[in-house]
């Protein structure tokens, strides 16, 4: 049940309206990283989250706050767009908003693209959703920062500073919720990934560049058990698919990941129960791909 309180979460005072800035602010109203997208993403994740009532509460708390942020951004936009209703020059800043929408709010981004549910990242896997939310808060923060850089209106800056700050608050809360699940950071879902292969960093970009860059190295090639493997293009062995390439039912297939699970993790029946095809593997036939029943042309 929702209840509306006739008071903004943060009082908005606009000194000098700026229709072009009002148009830019639409990015946080009906844009991909905007407040409606955040409100809907967290709220719907919360409604899905029936197995973890504590984190469901968190998702609904923050989803509801985002709706209050939408109201603040809406108030800011409405005030900045006001001159559009009377002045032709102001109206030219956004004919779509002015002529079709009467200079008021509507669910568009700053380029006039309509809001879409495609903006939402909802997987129904709690830890995966929390990671999406942490990233979403980082994006919202940077958008507010850029908006602040493009206005000198003190009241507008104050409201945007409030909204920007709250996104980092949310980022902290989502991070704490993820960490407190005590899941291994690379354990996603229930199925175990293929050993050895998972630790291979494919060095797919080599040679000397025009900017003096050579084959660059960093911790991304050596942390968390990773090591670099060279591409066959430069004489390397490539990924160690050897043992599994084209082979149905290889050793590691369908094993359950033994690490701690989020309570909402989708239950997966082990795929080992599925019959393993009896015909020869693609690798044994020396072909790139096989389809059952297709004639096998021998390669000499
Ligand atoms: Mn927000
Ligand atoms: Mn937020």
Global shape:
globular
Largest sheet: 2 strands, parallel
The CATH homologous superfamily of the domain at 19-179 is called: Ferritin, core subunit, four-helix bundle
Bound compounds: manganese (II) ion
Strand content: under 5%
Task: Enumerate how many helices there are, as a single number.
Answer: 9
Total beta strand runs: 2
How large is the radius of gyration? 26 Å
By oligomeric state, this entry counts as: single chain
Helix percent reads: 25-40%
Kindly describe this structure.
The protein is an all-alpha fold and 300 residues long. It has a domain at 19-179: Ferritin, core subunit, four-helix bundle (Ferritin, Up-down Bundle), CATH 1.20.1260.10. Helix content is 39%, strand content 3%. The protein contains nine helices and two strands. It has a two-stranded parallel sheet with strand order 1-2. The protein starts with 18 loop residues before the first helix and ends in a 15-residue tail after the last helix. The model has no long low-confidence stretch (mean pLDDT 88). One manganese (II) ion (MN) binds at residues 38, 66, 137, 140, 166-167, 170.
């Amino acid at each position: 049940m929702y209840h509306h309180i006739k008071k903004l979460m943060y009082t908005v005072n606009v000194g000098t309206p700026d229709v072009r800035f009002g148009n830019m602010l639409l990015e946080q109203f009906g844009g991909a990283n905007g407040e409606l997208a955040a409100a809907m993403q967290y709220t719907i994740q919360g409604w899905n989250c029936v197995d973890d009532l504590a984190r469901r509460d968190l998702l609904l708390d923050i989803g509801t706050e985002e709706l209050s942020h939408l109201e603040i951004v809406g108030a800011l936009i409405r005030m900045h767009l006001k001159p559009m209703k009377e002045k032709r020059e102001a109206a030219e800043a956004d004919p779509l908003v002015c002529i079709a929408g009467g200079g008021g709010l509507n669910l568009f981004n700053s380029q006039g693209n309509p809001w879409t549910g495609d903006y939402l990242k909802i997987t129904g896997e709690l830890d995966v959703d929390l990671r999406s939310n942490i990233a979403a808060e980082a994006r919202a923060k940077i958008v507010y920062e850029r908006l602040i850089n493009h206005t000198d209106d003190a009241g507008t800056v104050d409201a945007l500073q409030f909204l920007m700050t709250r996104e980092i608050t949310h980022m902290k809360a989502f991070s704490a919720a993820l960490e407190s699940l005590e899941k291994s950071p690379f354990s996603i879902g229930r199925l175990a990934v293929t050993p050895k292969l998972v630790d291979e960093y494919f060095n797919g970009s080599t040679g000397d560049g025009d900017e003096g860059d050579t084959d660059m190295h960093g911790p991304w090639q050596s942390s968390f058990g990773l090591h670099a493997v060279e591409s066959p293009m430069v004489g390397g062995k490539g990924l160690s698919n050897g043992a599994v390439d084209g082979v149905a039912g290889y050793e590691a297939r369908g094993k359950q990941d033994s690490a701690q699970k989020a309570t909402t993790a989708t239950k997966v029946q082990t795929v080992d129960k599925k019959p393993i095809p009896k015909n020869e593997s693609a690798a044994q036939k020396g072909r790139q791909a096989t389809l059952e029943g297709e004639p096998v042309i021998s390669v000499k």
